[in-house]
Design goal:
Hypothetical protein af1432, mainly alpha, 8 helices, 148 residues
Length: 148
């Protein structure tokens, strides 16, 4: 639900395999506010819109849409940020394949305190450490990979 605002972004930009231009990246960044506007009407889950709007804020203040930092970023959004990045690294995308678990873990450690809230990143790292069979990822059948 946090990325529902992507319905307002052109498909060719969403699925672009190469580097986005600055204008294209500005369009992508708008999905957080679009999603917030859509989700704020769902009163049954009031913090859903909060997570959507600020899930691309960074703990060091270098994120978007508002440049919030640290504890000024709502906790829901800090959690969604870590979960979203984990999902991006462990799922197949138009521009990438799932990364090995060790690489995902190393990225969470490396970005703890800058991109990610260190406490929330630590919880995710602990979950990875407990996931010996690497089940917290998208499973891609080998047959599907050979057809690509």
């Amino acid at each position: 639900m946090h990325d529902i605002g992507k319905i307002g972004v052109q498909e060719d930009i969403l699925n672009k395999k190469g580097k986005l231009t600055p204008d294209e990246f500005d369009i992508i960044k708008s999905h957080t506010v679009i999603g917030y506007e859509i989700l704020k009407t769902i009163t049954e889950i009031p913090d859903l819109a909060t997570g959507a709007r600020w899930h691309h804020e960074r703990y060091d203040g270098k994120g978007y849409p508002d440049g919030l930092a640290g504890e000024d970023i709502p906790e829901e959004a800090r959690i969604v940020c870590v979960a979203d990045c984990y999902d991006a690294m462990t799922s197949r995308r138009s521009y990438s394949f799932p990364k090995p678990q060790e690489e995902v873990r190393a990225e969470l450690v490396r970005c703890s305190g800058t991109q990610f809230d260190p406490d929330i990143a630590a919880v995710m790292i602990n979950m990875i450490d407990e996931d010996n069979d690497y089940m917290l990822r998208e499973i891609i059948e080998e047959a599907n990979l050979s057809n690509q």
